[in-house]
Every structure is written in structure tokens, then in C-alpha cells.
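Reply to dn_fold:

You asked what the input looked like. This is it:
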Amino acid sequence: MTTETPRAGLPFIAAAQAQKHVTHNEALAELDALLGARFLDRDLASPPASPAEGDAYLVKSPATDAWAGKDGKIAFCLDGGWRFFAPFAGLVALVIDESKFIAFDGSAWNDYAAYVPLDNVSQLGVNTSADATNKLAVTSNAVLFAALEAASSGTGDIRFTVNKETGSNTASLLFQNGFSGRAEAGLAGDDDFHFKVSPDGSTWTEAMVLDKSSGLITLAGDPTSALHAATKQYVDAHSGGGGGGGEANTASNVGTAGTGVFKTKSGVDLQFKKLNAASTKLTITDDTTNSKIDIDIAPSNIAISALSGAGALAAKNTAGSSDIDNAAITYAKIQNISATDKILGRATSGSGTVEEIACTPAARALLDDASAAAMVTTLGLDNTRIAAIAFVMDGGGSAIATGIKGDLMIPFDCTIASATLLADQAGSIVIDIWKDSYANYPPTIADTITASAKPTLSSAAKSQDATLTGWTTSISAGQTLRFNVDSASTVTRVTLVLEVVKS
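and this is what came back:
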């Protein structure tokens, strides 16, 4: 036989138990703590300073002081002390300081709202009661629908959709006064868009209809009745434009020059003149696809010899060919040059007539060069870009020791073309070169530029490498080179020469 209830753990009164009131009172105290449970706070790990009788808290971990070891228990103030109860699955409590209901699932407390379904509810009322017809009902002075922004994984768009089942059904917005209809807009009985109004909610007048296919507007009744008597003007959409009694429109050509395209108005027909190309020198095309008229010149049909008048070339070819005579272009319009080795420009300061400037063969050779590099070659300046960077390592009569031997700062931009080693005697040595900027000085082994092709002597007094496989050959002005001997034997003095090409 169990001694307590299986869910809340309330103590049973045992048969023939003495002082049954103790067990009974214990059960009443536990019921008082758990029935309609309310917690003043669930974020305290130690008891408050001055609790009142009946105050209850959900003990936060790690608990201390009088609550030590009671993590997750319900602390209930009774008789000036604390009683502790373990929550059970299904217990619902109100957290006073959060104004929130929470529920225990057997292992953790969760917001009670998590247990209340909001999907696929049969009806929902907000500040009012929904019913079988109005399954969603809202009573409010304002209703807001806002787009979900892109920053919140939305698109920033919002669309209010009203869908109906078939074409003969209605999908509309109904505006009421005292729950009596006054205006309606939407798909009312078909798929055209209707605008209707009513004075009493029972008698309706259709004011306007937008055709679903054409977008054309149909107005109800006599549109003239809504216009002021002094400006009674309209276009009757149903009469074909011929007998509606509307304004007698016309058209006219405006401007002070040119040829007008409007001819006359014959009844309701506005008549315009056609555009015509008087010769093959001009083409006129009716671009019906783009609703425009294209006017273009036919250059192949224009012969220079046929030009005449003040706008023609001053001295066109008198022989009748399409060539232009040299005499047709003066200095003011760039004329024939009188001699060889001349360029046209201004040698005299200021603006004025174009002048012939003598051009020497050397200048002509430079003008003929396609690039700056070709000009350098023409001027014979290639060799001035070649330089040598030499670094001497001296063991003072003894074999050169390993380690860092010194630094050189390079004052110009250049590219390494080859590396040469010259020693005082046959021997072996391997040298690494490190490079870095002045700001990052000194260079370290991580800044090596030689890859796996380090300058090397192998039982020899000299070596040269013009391939530099894997090297970082570019050097910027202001960068520092550091020379490090990885290994050496026999050699007591060696010179490393880097041939570079200045940028």
C-alpha cells in the first residue's frame, strides 16, 4: 500500500495512525501550495529577506542559503519557515512578476501558450465573439497589417488576398454604417470589378464596372447628371463617338515655321497629311510594332558631286567623283600639308590658325612606337634599368657560420632577374633571402622569397641561377632584404649578387 498520492505526492492517513491531524494538515499545506499555484518570482536562487505566509517561489539553480540543494523545487513560506515541493507534470502556475502562465511537462517549465493551438482553429474572436458565419471577428478602432521586412527573412511586400470559389460567387469589401451596408467594391457575382453604393443597405446602385478583359470602365446611369450644368460635356462610350452630343473637337498645327501635318476634320475623322520621301536619299518606315515612324538618311545614295548651294562643300571634286579635293580643306578646316616631316598643331602660344611643325626623324621614330617600352628601346635606355645588388658575407678567415648575416633596404621598385654566388674558394653554402616592408621590419623566415631554389654552392666557387623557380622576384621601394646562411662549409668569404631590372 502506497503512503502518498501518485501525482502530487500528498500524504495518506494510515490505518490506526496516531495524530492523524499531522498528516491531514501536511496534505492541506501541500494543496494550498499547489492548488491554483502562483509564484511571486522564478528568478531567485536564494530566499527573499521578508517573506509573507503563503508566498511561493520557483527556486532557480544554483540555489543558496536556506534554499541550498532545492534547485527547481517550489519554495512555500509556512509557519515562518520554508516547505519545498517537487512539481509534477501537468502543474500550471501563474508567475506574478511576469504576468505569465507556465506549465510543467515533467522535466521543464514552458509558456502555457505553447499548449494552446492557434493553427486550424474553427473560429476566432478578437475582443468580441466569433460565430458560425463570422468565423473571424475583430472589434477594434484600428487594424494593422504590416509587411515582413527583408531583415526578418521576409520580402518587404504585403498582399491582402480575398478569394472566392467560382466566378458566380462574390469576393468583395463591404462598408457598413450601423451594420447596414453603404458601399461595396469587388467581384460581385462575376469576375468584373464592381463599385456599388446603397442609402439603406437594401437598395443598391452600381456606380462603375471595370471589365476583367479590357479594363474599360462602364458608368451606370446618365453620366451628365453628375456634371455641373455649365460644363455639361462627356464622351458617350456606347454611341461610337458619333452622336453623343459632346464637344465638336478639332485639331490644328502650331508653331511659327515648318510644314504642318494636320489637314482637316471631316465629321469625326481627323485627317493628317502623309510623310513622303521625295528621293532615295531619305527613308521613311512605319514601325507598327513600336508605334513610331522611323526617318533615316541613306548615305550610299548621297554623292558629294551632287551637293550644291551654300551648305555644300566649298570645293567639291569637279571631276564628279565622290572624292574631296585637297583644296576643299583649308587650315581653318585642316588643310593639305605642304611638305614631308611635318605635323599640324600650334608652335605659337595662344589660340589661332593651325601651323606646320617640323618633325625630325628621331621624333617620328618615337611617334611610331606603340608603347613606352618601345620608346625606351628607341632611345637606347634599356641598359640604364639594369642594376646589381651585392651582399658580402665574410667569415674573417674562418668558415662562414650559419645564421643572419645582415640587411639591405632597396630604394627603388625592381624585379630580380638572376642570382650569382662568388666565393673565395671551392666549398658549399646555402643562403636564404627574406623580404618585408619597413613597417614590418625585421623580415623573418616566414618572409622567404627563394622557395626551394635558394642560392647554393655545392663544392664549387661560383654558381648562377637565371631561372629563379618559385621565387618572389618583385621588390618594392623601401622594402628590406635579409640574408640568412642556412648551411656552409669551407667557404670563408662569399658575395651574393642579385641582378635586378628597375621598374
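The domain at 382-502 is CATH 2.60.120 (Jelly Rolls).
Hope that clears it up.
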